[in-house]
Amino acid sequence: MRSEQLAINSVSTRQADLQTSLDAYQQAGFVNVEFWLSHVWQYLEQGGTRAALQRLLGRYNLQCIGGFETPLLCLYGARERRTNHDRILENAELLAELGGRNLVVGTDGPETEMADPLSPVVEAFSQVGERIASTGVTLCLEFNWSPLVKSLRTAGHIARCVGRDNVGVLFDPAHYHCTPSKFDQLDDDNGPWIKHVHVDDMRDKPAELSNCNSDRLLPGQGCLDLPALFGRIEDYGYRGYFSIEMFSDELWALPAERAAGLMYASLAYLCTD
């Protein structure tokens, strides 16, 4: 990866308000931000405007690359699905206005045993992918943000079955570590469908005893061979962003500028420039 591909997910500094976070990212060296969209909606509900947020991004020389907020419901009742899919469209439209192109989503799961639970997931992603097509935003399915889609293999299968350019997979090393995903699943079937990548490392614990959020460490401090993972993804043509996403009480206890600086510094060993 190259330094211009680096990004930060704003959940990593959730202790700070939006403007403080943006200032911290610029001071750290980031030029790309992925939004925790709850942060953005709160800013708007408190009287901020989309135009004002665009001006803030310009002031801090930051580019919005995408965001996340909610799973995409595939198996709930029709009314719940409609409400949720409308929200997905709202999020896609908001991201498009801010310049973002990737919307990370999880899924729900079946309440009772189903013979073929993946078919409704494929159908829902097909329908919502079509609905948001005009925004230019891509749905990125995050495996393990779901009681059903628990591996890269399954996420890749869903993306292939949908067969749309604006539906793909989000790869996160923490979820890779904690699930049945294997390195050999970064293959011809799944590699080309990876549309977005998160960055984090993990404590040296068995996968079944690990927490995919609280056991995250800064890149280079854990047990994962991140250069091998990301190099393999790049072998399949990935040229998108690498967005650090930390759920860390230690980082959240720091001033946002200090936390962002530590995160940016931790990424240096992964860059080729």
Q: What do you see in this structure?
A:
The model has no long low-confidence stretch (mean pLDDT 97). The strands form two sheets. This protein has an eight-stranded parallel beta barrel with strand order 1-2-3-4-5-6-7-10, surrounded by five helices. A two-stranded antiparallel sheet has the order 8-9. The protein contains ten helices and ten strands. With 273 residues, it is an alpha/beta fold. It has a single domain, classed as TIM Barrel (Alpha-Beta Barrel), CATH 3.20.20. The chain has helices at 18-28, 37-45, 50-59, 78-98, 118-131, 152-162, 173-178, 226-235, 249-252, 256-266, and strands spanning 6-9, 32-36, 63-68, 102-105, 138-142, 167-171, 194-199, 201-202, 216-217, 242-244.
CATH architecture name: Alpha-Beta Barrel
Q: Give, in order, the helices and strands.
A: EHEHHEHEHEHEHEEEHEHH
N- to C-terminal distance: 8 Å
Q: How many separate domains make up the residues?
A: 1
Q: What radius of gyration results from the CA coordinates?
A: 18 Å
Q: How are the strands of the largest sheet arranged?
A: 1-2-3-4-5-6-7-10
The fourth-level CATH homologous superfamily is: Divalent-metal-dependent TIM barrel enzymes
Nearest-integer average pLDDT: 97
